[in-house]
Structure formats: C-alpha cells, structure tokens
Amino acid sequence: MGKTPEQILEIAKKILNYSSVLLVTRTTIETFKLLKKEIRNIEFSSISNIIYTPLDIPDDNLSEGITVICAGTSDISVAEEAAITGYLMKNKVRKIYDVGVAGIHRLVSFKDELNRSNVIIAVAGMEGALPGVVSSMVDCLVIGVPTSVGYGTSFKGISPLLTMLNSCSPGVVVVNIDNGFGAGYVAGIINRVIKRGKST
Amino acid sequence: MGKTPEQILEIAKKILNYSSVLLVTRTTIETFKLLKKEIRNIEFSSISNIIYTPLDIPDDNLSEGITVICAGTSDISVAEEAAITGYLMKNKVRKIYDVGVAGIHRLVSFKDELNRSNVIIAVAGMEGALPGVVSSMVDCLVIGVPTSVGYGTSFKGISPLLTMLNSCSPGVVVVNIDNGFGAGYVAGIINRVIKRGKST
Amino acid sequence: MGKTPEQILEIAKKILNYSSVLLVTRTTIETFKLLKKEIRNIEFSSISNIIYTPLDIPDDNLSEGITVICAGTSDISVAEEAAITGYLMKNKVRKIYDVGVAGIHRLVSFKDELNRSNVIIAVAGMEGALPGVVSSMVDCLVIGVPTSVGYGTSFKGISPLLTMLNSCSPGVVVVNIDNGFGAGYVAGIINRVIKRGKST
Amino acid sequence: MGKTPEQILEIAKKILNYSSVLLVTRTTIETFKLLKKEIRNIEFSSISNIIYTPLDIPDDNLSEGITVICAGTSDISVAEEAAITGYLMKNKVRKIYDVGVAGIHRLVSFKDELNRSNVIIAVAGMEGALPGVVSSMVDCLVIGVPTSVGYGTSFKGISPLLTMLNSCSPGVVVVNIDNGFGAGYVAGIINRVIKRGKST
Amino acid sequence: MGKTPEQILEIAKKILNYSSVLLVTRTTIETFKLLKKEIRNIEFSSISNIIYTPLDIPDDNLSEGITVICAGTSDISVAEEAAITGYLMKNKVRKIYDVGVAGIHRLVSFKDELNRSNVIIAVAGMEGALPGVVSSMVDCLVIGVPTSVGYGTSFKGISPLLTMLNSCSPGVVVVNIDNGFGAGYVAGIINRVIKRGKST
Amino acid sequence: MGKTPEQILEIAKKILNYSSVLLVTRTTIETFKLLKKEIRNIEFSSISNIIYTPLDIPDDNLSEGITVICAGTSDISVAEEAAITGYLMKNKVRKIYDVGVAGIHRLVSFKDELNRSNVIIAVAGMEGALPGVVSSMVDCLVIGVPTSVGYGTSFKGISPLLTMLNSCSPGVVVVNIDNGFGAGYVAGIINRVIKRGKST
Amino acid sequence: MGKTPEQILEIAKKILNYSSVLLVTRTTIETFKLLKKEIRNIEFSSISNIIYTPLDIPDDNLSEGITVICAGTSDISVAEEAAITGYLMKNKVRKIYDVGVAGIHRLVSFKDELNRSNVIIAVAGMEGALPGVVSSMVDCLVIGVPTSVGYGTSFKGISPLLTMLNSCSPGVVVVNIDNGFGAGYVAGIINRVIKRGKST
Amino acid sequence: MGKTPEQILEIAKKILNYSSVLLVTRTTIETFKLLKKEIRNIEFSSISNIIYTPLDIPDDNLSEGITVICAGTSDISVAEEAAITGYLMKNKVRKIYDVGVAGIHRLVSFKDELNRSNVIIAVAGMEGALPGVVSSMVDCLVIGVPTSVGYGTSFKGISPLLTMLNSCSPGVVVVNIDNGFGAGYVAGIINRVIKRGKST
Lengths: 200, 200, 200, 200, 200, 200, 200, 200
What we know:
alpha/beta; Rossmann fold; 8 strands; homooctamer
C-alpha cells in the first residue's frame, strides 16, 4: 500500500534472509518483474496480483481440509488470495469457484464435498449470502470474506459484510472486505492446530 | 403514527362512509377496543397489530396467486401485515411461515409450491437472504420485505435491506423496512392486473 | 465488472450456444468491436453501454404494457438499460424520457397515457421523487430505479433510493441504484405472467 | 432540552423583563401549567407543544405573505411550530395542512393560492417530496422542513432532508429536521425585509 | 453532468431561442470554446467553470442587497457560482472573499457592511462555521453553502452541511453541497420580491 | 427477540423432546421462573441473561483449549454468553475477565497462559483493541466479539467492530456485535474438529 | 455503565484503599446515597451526575491555567464533568459557562481572559463551532468536547464532533462525545507537566 | 488544496515578507521546483510532500520533549508532517517509526524512552490502536492521528479515528484524519507553554 516497487524489493530480500516463504499481496506485474531480476524462486498470480514463493515440498505432504468457495469471475481474485495463502501454510486447498446462491440447487448438490472440510472460506460480494447458506449445509467453521466488487448499494463491500455478520447460521465468522489473505491465514492456523492434534 | 385512538376512530368512520374496506396498521389493542364500540364489523390481528374489516365474499371468490414466506417467529408480524393487505384486495394468500435459508434443504423442497405463485412476498430480517434464494428457485416476481428485528449490525433492518437490493437473482424488488402493507398492496395490484388480463 | 473483453467474448459465445438472446450491460464500445468480429447479430447502445442481440420477431408480436419514464439526459442511460431488457423479453416498451417533477404540470398531463400500462419503470436521480408522484397518478405497479448521477448529498444514488423506499404512494417498489436491467427484467416477468393469464 | 420546568420558568421571566414576546418550543403541558401560575398572558399549543404569548395587535395589522403547507396529521406539529413562530413575528400565516404529493392533482390545484405568497414553508416527512413539487409550481422561495416522523428508511428525517437538499427545483432551501421554529423565523425575517422595502 | 460539449451546445442554442440568459455550471473551457464558435455573446469564468451571457443593462440598474462571503481560495469557485447566478438575475452582488472564522476579529469588523444586505450567501467548507457566525451578527437571512473541498472528516462537504443545519443562530438556511447556483438563485428571487414590494 | 415467555416455554419443551441441551439467550429472570415450573434441570445466568441446561458429565470429560478474555465489568455479560455456549458444547472454558489494553503490561504477562489455547475469544467494547493485541501474542485463532456497551462514538459497537475487522494481526476473525453465542459456538466447532483429529 | 450501585460501592471502597481520590461519572443520586452510608468524605454534583471526594488542600495551593467554556444550560453537565476532573487533579479551574458563537461579540470580548490559560476546554453541542472560534483568539491548546444534546442532524454529537475535527484553527484537539472526564484529565496532565517544568 | 503552483508561489512570497518560516503541506515536487527558482532557502520532504524553510538555529537550541511514533511505511508520510511541523516550532522531535501493536512486546520495551516525552504524537491507520496502548504506558498527553491508508472497513481513516476517540486510556486526544500538521502544531504549542513555564 503506497510502497514503491523498490521498497518492496528491499523488504522482500530482507524477509527471504530469515524465511523461505514470501507473499506480497495487492501488488503489480511491474513489481514482480523487478523482483524476478534479483529473486529467482518466485511466481506471480495475475488473477489475484500476488507474488509468492512456491513451496519446495511434494503435494502429498500438504494437509487436506481447507476449501475455498465463490460464485464466479468477480470474486476469484480474492478467493485466489485466500487459496495461495493457505497453500503457503502447507495446505492442499480445494477450490470451488463457480457455485453461488443464484444457482441454489447446484450449491446444495455440493453438500457432501463441502462436509469433507475442516474449515471453509466463502468469498462473496453484492448480497453476500453464500457463507450463511454454506454454513447451513455443513458443521465446520465458515470464514466469510466480503468483496468490494459490485455497484450501487453494495457500497464497496459493506452490504456483503453486513450480510455475513448477520448470518442466521451461527458457524460463520468474518474478516475485512477483500481480505483473502486474512481468511487464508486463519484457515491455515486452524488446520495446523488440527494437524498438531492428530499427531499428538 | 402519532395519531391518538380518538383521531383514528374519526378517520375510520370517515373512510367507512365511502368504502367497505378499513385497514389500520401499526395500531394497538386499545385502539381496536375503542373502534369496536362504534364500528361493528372489524377484527384485530394481535400478531401484526392490525385492525381490519373482514371481507364479505366467499373464499372461493378470492384470487389465487400470492404467497407470503418467512422464516419464523420474529418476522411473522410483518408477514401477516402483508398477508392481510393482500387478502383485503380479494386474494386467497398462501402462507409459508417456517422456512428460511438456515434450513436450506427444507427451503429447496418448496420449489414446486412456490412456483405456483404469480408473485411471492419474502419477509426477512438480519441477513435478509431469503428473497434472493427464493428468487433463484422461481420465475415470478419476488417482493423482499426487510424487517427491523435483530440486533447489532442488522441496524434495524438496514442489513437485510441492502442484501435484498444487491440480490444476485434479478427478479427481486424491495419495499421499505417493515413495510408489509406496501408489499401486500403491490402484490394485490399485480394480481389484479393478471386477473383482469385473464377475463379479457 | 472486472471482466476483460476477451473474457466477455468467451462467455458470450457460450451463452449463444444455448440461447438466442445475449445482453451485456456496463460494457464498452471496445468490447463490442471485439465481439462483433466473431458474433454477427449484435448491436451496441452507446447511450446505455449495452451489447445485445436484436429480436428476430415482428414488432406486432411484442407485448404492450411496459412504460419507462425519466426526466432527462442524465437518467436516460439507465432508462435505456431497462427498456432494452424489457424489449429482449419480447415487449414493446413505451418510453417517456423528458418528463419530471420539476415540470409538474407537464407530468400530470401524462396521466391517461401512463394509465395504459401494466407496469411502469420510473428512473430518477438526485431527489428521486418521480416514482412516488407517478404512482399517485396510476393504479398499476411502479418500479423505482434510483440513479447515481448527481453531486453533493445525492450520495451516488442513496438520496433517490431513500426517497423511493419512503414513497407516500404504496404502489412503488425499488431496485438497486442504476439497476436498469433488474427493473426491466422484473417488468418483463410481470408482463409475461399477465400475458400468460390472458391466454389461459 | 434538558431544562427543568423550573429552569424554564426562570428563563421565561427574565425574557419577559425586556421583551413582550415569549416562545418556548419542545415543551410540555406540565411546564405550561407551572408558567401559567406566574405569567398571565401565555397560551399553549398542544399540537406543537409550544408555550407562547399571543400578540396584542389586531389581525389586520399582521403582514400577509407567509404560507405553511403540509400533507397531514403526522407533520402538523412541526407545521404549527413554524406557523406560530411566523405569527409571533407579526404575520398572518396562511395554513394548508391537508395537501401532499400522494394527491398530486389536489396539490396542483393550489397553484394560484400558493403563488400569492412571499415565502412558503413546506413541511414533510418520509419521502419529503413536497417542497420540490411546490417549488416547481411557484416563483417564490420554498423553505423545506424535514420531519422525523416515519419508520424504516426515513431514518428519523434523514430521508426527507436529503430529498429536499437534492430538489430539482432550484428555489428550495432547507432547515434542520423538525426545525419548525427556524423555518418560521426565516420566513418572518424575509417578510419583514419585504415589508420594510414596501414602506421605503 | 455527463453531457457532452456537443449536447450542451445544442441545449444552449435551444435556450437562447426563447431567453436572453444562458448559464452553464460545472462545465469546462473546452465546452466554452465549442460554444463560442456559434454563440457570440458568452463569457467564461475560469474560477467557477461557468459559461454565461453577460447582462445587457447598465450596472446602475442592478439591484443592491445580495452579499456573498467566504474565507478564501478553496471556496471561491462555489462563491463565484453563487455571485454570477445572482448577477444574471439582475443584482449587483457584493463579494467578501477573504474573511473567515479563523480570523474572528476581522470577521466581526465587517458587521456594518454585512448588515446592509437583504440576504447573505455564506460559503464554507471543512468546519462550516461561517454562516452561523455571520448570522449572529446580522438580522437578515443567511444562506449557507457547504463546499466539498477539504480532506479527512470533512467527508466531501457533509461536515460543513451538518454544522450549518445545526446553526445556533436561527436565521440560517442551507442548500446542497457545492450548490452555489441554488444559493444565488434563491437570493435572486428573495431580492426580486423585495424590489417588487418597494415598487408597489 | 419479541418472543413472549409463554412462546419460549413452548419452544423450549419442543427442543428438549429431541435434545438434552437447551440454551436461551437474551432472556429474563421472569422467563426463567416460568420455565423452571415445568422444566426441572435448567439454570439461569443473571450476568448474561441466559437460561441453559447444565451438562450431565464430569468436568474431566470436558475438552480444554478454549479461552475467553475481556477487560472488565461492562463486557462480562457477552463474555459469559460465549463461555456458557462453549461449555454446552462440552468444553472446559478458561476465563480471563479482568485484563485489557489499558493495562498493557498485565496483558502481556498472560502470554504463556493464552498460548495454551486452541482458540481464544476476545470480547471488547469502545476502542475494541483487545483481540488484535492478543493475536499479536499468540499463534492460534482469535475470535473478536465487539460489544455495544459504551457511549458517544462507540456507536453501539460499530467502533470496536471496525477496529477488529482492521486488526493489524492477521489471526483475528469477527462475529456480530454482542454475539457471544456465535463466538462460543464457533470456538466449540473448532475445538470439536481438533479433538476429532486427535482421536483419529 | 451497566454497573449496579452495589458494584460501584464495592469498587469505590477498593479504590479508596490505595488512593485518596474517588471520581464516579455518569452515576445517579441513588448511587450517591448508597455510597454516602459507608464513605464519609464524598460529594455529589447533581448537574453532572458525578460523585467525588473533595480535595483536602487549600484553594491557594491549586494550580491556575485551566479554563472551561461553554454556551449554556445544555452543555453545563459535560462542562462540569471536565471542571471537576481538572479540580481533582489539583487545579483551580476557571469556568465561563454562558458564552457562545451565537453571541459572537460577547465571546470576542473574553479574548484577554481566555489568553491567561495554559489550556482551554471548549464544550459545545449542535453546530460545535465554539472550540474553533476560541482557538482563533488564543495561542494555547483548545480541547473540544462535543456534546450529544440537540436534535435532528446533530446526530447525538456527531455534528459538533465533525465540526471540531475540521476546525480551521490548528490548535484544536478533540475527545469523545460527552467525554468531559477525558478533557479534564488531559488538561490536568498538561498543566502538571507545565508546573513540573516551572519547578525545575 | 486546489491551489496552482503559481498561486502557492505567490502566497509563499507574501508569507516570507513578514515571517522567516514557510510550511506548505500536501504539495508536490513540481511546486517545489517552481518555488525553488525564486525562494532560496527551502527544502522538500518527498516522504510527506512538504516544502519548508529549515531553521537557522543550532540543534542544541531546540527544545526536547516531543516524540512521534508510528508502526511503519504506510504511516510515515503523516508522521513526518507532524515531525517537521514540530521542528519548525523549534523542537528537536524524537522519531520512533517502526513500532506498532502488532509487535506488542517490542512496543512495551519502549516504555522508558516514551516516558521521557512531554507530549507524544501517535500516528496509526487501519485498527488505530497505537495511541491507546501508548497512552497506557505513559503519563503524558498522547495526540492520536488517524491515517487514511488501508482498505475495506478502514473507511479512509474512519476506523482508526473511532478507535482513538474511544480509547480506554483517558490521556488520548484526536485530530482530523491525516492531519499531521495539526498534531505537530498542538505538540509545539504545548511544549512552548512548558518551556515558558520553565523560564518563568
């Protein structure tokens, strides 16, 4: 936010001195190109405008249990931010990116698949009803992420934020508007505690 | 609003001079008792705090086609206001008062029944997702009525109002918070035009 | 919303595989030019920034009964979005685009013409009084569409939205700010039910 | 506001030491009874909860030119506050208390009567369209007074306030919600300047 | 608003067919250059972005009595819009453009000059206290015009708007944010009524 | 919400037909007394106005891992609602009810104790900084519950709600204002999944 | 806030175990009567609903330099809360309780007296212009305290809060609505640092 | 704000006629380059976009006692505006620019250093908890400056503004969003009064 590509490069190099994981959200392809010159092992997600270091471990060693769901094109950017964050915390994230309340029968048909999750991230703009309806179908935590896409009375995410805070289904919590990173991070720490439990 | 029982009595008598229909919303049992002394043919709905004149025509002469749906106890008051208004416009109003998005499977099972309507009034507070989900299941108009019940960020009906205005399903229109009367009235004039069409 | 012209082209082609109707709102002339290369039968409304497929049926086969009214230049874009949507649902939409409450005598003189409608779409920004005043002159449904044009305390459409929700005349319902599509769609399904009624 | 009847009595006596006019708004019948014991020449308007000293001059000496208009029962309290204030500034205030935009034809029929004013105070709650429509019919100043009566999205007067600020007709100014006193006072000083002009 | 220079030219020519006065607010120098090609007698105010037709009458025939006051650079644009509007209604508008509440002693020294007005337009952004303080010094009407200049909690004019609506001094009325035209127009019709009074 | 004690009694009896757990929030001592007459095994928490059925299992069989923290008297009501809900889901909930950011050194000293949790519920009104600061000290999930206690710009919980949504520490999620039940429920389902993991 | 008189008594006794100063704001005469039974040396300010322990030192030992100013009856309650708080921090607080911007000449005449302060607390509701105007007259800090008295668009203190935050005069800071205690406390710590400076 | 570089140059030259100090905030490098041509002794802070005249006195003659603290990159711009303002009032401002509540242990370790201040300026965006937590560690005044950086529900500084106004710690006052200048100015006048006290 307000940081120049040069500032980000400097910060990135500092981080990689003591960590193998780098994650830069809300960035640009220009910044990626600059970083790429000096940092080898990074990738760019053009959908979510994220720079990150792919993991160096086999897929089979990733943990199952996190699902990210959203209704379509407009919300995928934020959904991917959540998914990549979860992935960087060593999770194999399941993605369902074309299911929403406007196609309620299709959504209902995902009940069993959704119930195989430890935690679900539901991303939605405009009316923001997805997390509540998903929560009514499962018995694990649903993290609602309101998005700022939309027009008129969606008020840049306030409308879906309120919908999620007022969910009739009690298993829904909320993070800030467009905060895919926060949702992915929270899903990651929950899944880590669960995994730790298993290995106890 | 702000009118004394005596003022309402006077207005009621004036109305009944030129009309056989009387409808007083947002009133009290005390006002009803006062009116009852001078106006014979009125009833009181304690659930919706409405005074009205029951119709003088057989049930079979009422028009089918209007359905009122809400999730439960908290919203029934407004739902009944809509239903009675529709009834006074000579409609046999179907009522589904215990179905909401928190029980999404049950709601989905009503698809066929809902599709037998010309127009549906969906009443909901808090997250207010019901009209949008109902609309995704039918191909007639859904009138959303946000209610002011709730707490915290439901903001006395603003949250469900925004949800309904932002519905992903395009067949939803909205009336003012708690405005069961307006919804019933609109349903009534739509059904009247349809009926008129039929008899052409 | 956030979709690239290429994404829209792809989606458009998919839609035309199973439907003869295409409607793309909030788009650009650039996107139209791209689509035009691969899709023959489309037109562009530069006033409302809409791409659509003109109907393949004679005008006389369109249904009467939908009127769109607005006060002038600023609101025509949204009014046209409503009108084209209604047209695509096989209606001959009557348009009155130069009548507002600032010229109250002129508006009142349209009473008879307005009363020939099954449903009226009234588009207005700033004070947003048009739907309420129109409703006081007719006995059919009026769908109010608030627009975001204006400055200062019109708050990008919030002021006319509130005016319409608070209309003294009970026959007014409201859709989201600038949602001409939604208004046209709702008018279309109402007129369809009426027509269906007639043919019963 | 927050003042006890005893405090008001004390203040009232102080005022009457140097002025023959007393005006206490937003007060109660209890306060009036207390004041009446010690101050002879005061009256109480139970509709607007105002204590005031009736003028000691013949009606014919009052100035013409101020009109107060509102649609009905709910807004009369504020309208009377404006009217009494104008009266105390030595004006014969014309009152039209049963005309609103919901009866647009009736309102339009008042055109000539309204045009006999120097300044018009239009009081309205809920949608608040009255001042704008009145202004479109006259060529003098219209002072809009939004009222807090209503429910739902009238938001205790915010909705009519916004409507009036966004009036399409340029001759409308606005005072605070429920501020009948301010409107009456402004009408009074305008009429005084006009009168002064005449006598020059 | 949203009108192209070509549309404005067309409208301008239509207006000049039946009126000798043209006033285009919120326009640009580009539009002025286009109009200038076809309409001879127009001028452009670069401070307020207004195109207008200068009056064809001697200054001495203009009416006195309107004063426009503001604190400085930021608000002059709106103040000039008010002043030009008043001028086009045949008034000689007095301008005080460098006096604000931040220099309270200087403001107070203008008391006599301000009291020579029939009506004062006070333009202010940010805290918006100017109209109230001016009103405490005079006994004529003060029209407050909140401006959208500023940052942070001035909220694009909401803060000064609220200040003016809540003015402790009762002789203040308010128009929409940045609505210099409205304020000038209202001042003009008040001064016209006063003048008419004088000539009676 | 709006339910009479009699309605609650009826609903309670229905619930106990198929469940051994009853939880009634936002209720009153009067309702408790009525229920107590017909339902033996219930208790009343006067601090949180909750009626509930105490568990029938030894404390040692409850799961560890949930902590509820708040700063003091004003927030205990909501904190207890969360704690009882967690308890009814068979958890031994640790309570820290007298630690806030106003005593930052004391709060910091709880670091080790807090880190023994699987999930922490942090309840706070007014500035609402507690969840963020707690989150900066631990590496498990923190559920923030804003409370409506306070005055002025706490806006009945909006201020702490925004603070929590904007937490600099990424491990914070939020539920509705005063929604202790939702927070407790979410903590319960997270702890259940963890336990299930352990027993796998 | 929400504390019972008994809870307050208990807390008060605890405080007096380690401090000689007790200050309870937003309390009631009933609570005072209860405390008085067990705590000898306390007084009650009925204007500001405060219980406090009067200081045990001669007036001449109090520090000069703090002034509290407000316009009148409605704001005195909050002003007194500030004044008593300052007094309890061993300051002789000067009070000017009948001067406001509505009487601008009178206010200006206080210039010299105000300039004898180290810090000024200016309390104001409704338009809230007092702190800004006072600040334009002095060169010390002005602490603005918005009050919630008022009606309509004063929005329970939001209007004066915004006015103060947007003050044109740069020497104004703001505390929460009605937070007389906070303003008095801040004035006290500033004056303490100054005094400490003097004695260095 | 809205002033052209040329206007600023002219104003700057006027100011330097009677003062040796120039401070232009919210400006650009282009304006600086223009001014530099005609005014020798000015510097530009690219971090805070400020043009100012460096002081002509030795560092040892500056007063100690003002500290500016913020958490990082995003808020430094506003922090520097405060620091330069304080410096121009002849203070040696201590800067702590990399400490926030997200690293609570590090923040707590600054306790002694912070307590050496007469007044602390704490700059924070998003959750805005820094001023309150700092205030809980010191016994001098803390001036909170909310910043508009951030996204989603930080609402361009409203969220941190509310947090600061609701601070649990009573020694916090607030200035407008992004108003580093105001905070620096207030710190300057407080420190000046303290210094004056010392020299008495």
